[in-house]
Design a protein that fits this description.
208 residues, alpha+beta, 2 domains, 7-stranded antiparallel sheet, 3-stranded antiparallel sheet, globular
Length: 208
Amino acid sequence: MAAILAALQAPGAEAHFRTGKLGYRSTITGIEPRMPGLRFKILYGDDQVWLDNRSGKTVIIKGYSGEPYLRFSSGGIYVNIHSPAGYLNQDRYARVTVPKSARVKAKPDWQKLAGGDVWAWHDHRIHYMNPIPPPQIKAAPRKPHHVFDWTVPATENGKRFLIAGSLDYKPPPRKDFPYGLVISLATLIGVGLIGLFALRRVLIRSLK
């Protein structure tokens, strides 16, 4: 059981977020309907959904087929080890083997992950599920693009709501752009201008 829970822990930043550095950004556009006491944000560009549950109510995050996946309650944060989502999330592109015990229609088996109200999880719904860029980015990689809108379904004390967001692309800085050279040239130009102004003052004084 301990090994299963270790595998279901939220992946570290280095596990997934590198594509955020390639220009992908997910943002939350709204909670539908609004849920007071719940705070959400996206971590590492397009990698994880972060939730701080201060509502005092039980929040269930749904898995990819609508099954219960994560539970935020007064007793802490729990994961359903029968949800395929916890295993699929261990790889950016879900290239994993899901155990037979993890079935969408299986009765939830809740195992505690942590105490408190805050947890973050990787979610495939908020990022592009292919290492090859989508056609619009391949066609114009130096222009910004809207990739798609996304939703993550959840419930609060049984009441359904959606975390709604947008995945967008902004061209990252060119790696081959000589930023160091530009900074060095700017410094030299600045020093040169200071020298010219100093020489000008000396000449003016000598002519008086």
